[in-house]
Write a structure and sequence with these properties.
Layout: H1 2-16, H2 20-25, H3 34-37, H4 41-55, E1 74-75, H5 78-83, H6 85-92, H7 102-125, H8 135-158, H9 169-172, H10 179-196, H11 208-221, H12 231-241, E2 264-268, H13 281-284, H14 287-293, E3 306-307, H15 309-312, H16 327-331, E4 332-333, E5 363-364, E6 390-394, H17 395-408, H18 412-426, H19 442-457, H20 463-469, H21 473-480, H22 482-487, H23 501-506
Antiparallel strand pairs: 1-3, 2-6, 4-5
């Protein structure tokens, strides 16, 4: 019976991801009585494991990098922009970013089967009499965390979304709901997760600490118009969980021999062994390196996504990096010399990119996995097998979020103290006097923290959300993303993605009239 439940979920993910409503309306192929399946704790526990397993796909290969594109931190490589104009719209914010854009549709479709399965688990197990610490409560807590986290992403990227609460399905249907209702639902889920998730859990699974971290982020990110943005409540959430974690040397975060450090709050678990690899190196590595040394060089790849100048240059050259910051060389590859040989662009000159060649300009380094290199002796011999764990939530991020809250609560001095704790780690534990943040205005802090978050969290999938929640999306993307700057077409409505055309066609309750403004 357990195998059947997993198959229901996996089949749903594959067959019905084109549409939230289509997925939700389709009867199970096995014709099992869902009320029985989702009330059986053993079966539901197996289903929950399946949700976690499928959640990892949100960060695999191209799926893991699409949402990093089009920011002031990351952009597509020049050859990708030339060879795929449709996908180029994700950075240019031109007419190619529309409801037919395939990568946007994939991001939407990946998430709804997970939300739906979590909703079924919650509906089957949740009861008013749940007792914290019980197996049933733990299941509800983890399912609520997953639904809350993914709804958080969906709401940040698309705005109004359907609310998947099975107990209210007859009332809610499958239509987009008002933002206030959506964010109240997200906050409710994460509140329940904080109450019911276990304090400790298997690696890669939610804990009460992870739930509190995300609840704090939700209070920080809820649109002001909803009336739910509350920096004091966010502060309280962070204070309740931060003491459970410890900052570790920054380089340890990217050492595959040291997974799930004391800093990790939630970390997606991968390995170079198929099918558990994340394949992300294919997206972030260099074509010039690949063409010179082959797939067996661990920093080969196809330049699908590269850092912006702002994200890799020094402060003196218009970027974010200060002298002595150890995070710089852990995050970004500047040198492509491989066993004494330095590649050149000659081997890929046929691309004809002129001044746009970027295959040997700085690249993402954090997820390079030497285990895939021919010289590792492990036999993987292909960068496509990259399998480092990927952080979802960690203490460095939460400390900076906490500092933002303190600043918004007119405690800028206290906020500076917290930021300097994070910065001290970046200088090996002792922060030079000239690198310490000192007294500044509340508004100056708001500006400075955005660069600090690039330094600390480069390529960790938070930048788009940071830009949206702070209202700086258009200005900073236009200023620092090469392709958006060249195009000059980004507008305020591009802060949200378009609802995919497939959803508009398959879900009768989301019509073209419901499309996000600017994409109609």
């Amino acid at each position: 019976m357990k195998k059947i439940v997993i198959n229901i979920f996996i089949a749903g993910t594959v067959m019905f991801s084109a549409s939230c409503k289509k997925f939700l309306d389709q009867d199970s192929l096995t014709k099992l009585d869902e009320s029985k399946v989702y009330s059986d704790v053993g079966l539901v526990q197996t289903s929950l494991k399946g949700v976690y397993a499928n959640w990892l796909n949100n960060r695999v290969d191209e799926q893991g990098t699409v949402l990093m594109m089009g920011t002031d931190e990351m952009q597509q490589g020049a050859y990708q922009m030339k060879s795929d104009p449709g996908k180029g719209g994700l950075d240019r914010y031109d007419g190619n970013l529309n409801s037919l854009q395939g990568q946007v549709a994939t991001q939407w479709n990946l998430r709804w089967p997970l939300v739906n399965e979590a909703a079924k688990i919650i509906n089957g197990i949740d009861k008013p009499t749940l007792t914290a610490g019980s197996q049933e409560a733990g299941i509800v807590g983890e399912a609520s965390f997953i639904r809350g986290f993914i709804d958080f992403e969906l709401a940040m990227y698309w705005g109004e979304i359907p609310i998947r609460d099975i107990s209210r399905e007859s009332t809610l249907g499958f239509k987009r709901q008002p933002l206030k209702d959506v964010w109240a639902f997200i906050i409710s889920d994460l509140t329940k997760a904080a109450a019911f998730c276990p304090a400790t859990n298997d690696a890669g699974r939610a804990t009460s600490g992870a739930a509190l971290a995300m609840l704090g982020k939700a209070y920080m990110s809820a649109p002001v118009s909803t009336g739910l943005r509350d920096f004091d409540k966010a502060r309280d959430c962070f204070e309740k969980m931060m003491g459970k974690y410890t900052l570790v040397p920054y380089k340890d975060l990217w050492d595959y021999s040291k997974p799930n450090t004391a800093e990790a709050i939630l970390e997606f678990q991968y390995s170079p062994v198929s099918p558990n690899n994340n394949k992300v190196q294919f997206q972030i590595g260099s074509r010039a390196v690949q063409n010179t040394f082959g797939d067996g060089c661990y920093y080969s790849g196809y330049d699908k996504i590269v850092p912006t100048i702002h994200a890799y240059e020094t402060v003196a050259n218009g970027g974010v990096w200060e002298d002595g910051d150890l995070r710089r060389d852990e995050s970004i590859r500047y040198d492509f010399t491989y066993y004494g040989v330095t590649p050149t662009l000659d081997i890929i000159s046929w691309e004809g990119l002129g001044a746009d060649f970027d295959e040997l300009k700085p690249h993402v380094k954090k997820y390079e996995d030497f285990r895939t290199d021919t010289h590792s002796g492990l036999g993987f011999n292909n960068m496509y097998n990259s399998g480092k764990d990927m952080p979802v939530l960690r203490l460095g991020d939460i400390k900076l979020c906490y500092a933002e809250c303190l600043n918004e609560l007119n405690r800028t001095g206290d906020a500076i103290v917290v930021v300097n704790q994070v910065r001290a780690r970046a200088w090996g534990g002792t922060l030079p006097t000239d690198k310490m943040w000192t007294a500044m205005s509340q508004d100056q802090f708001r500006t400075n923290i955005m660069d600090e978050r690039i330094r600390e969290l480069f390529a960790e999938s938070w930048r788009r959300i940071d830009l949206i929640r702070t209202g700086k999306f258009v200005d900073l993307v236009k200023a620092n993303n090469k392709w958006a700057k060249q195009s000059g077409t980004i507008q305020a409505f591009n802060t949200l993605y378009p609802i995919p055309d497939s959803e508009l066609k398959l879900n009768s309750e989301i019509t073209p009239d419901d499309q996000n403004p600017g994409y109609k």
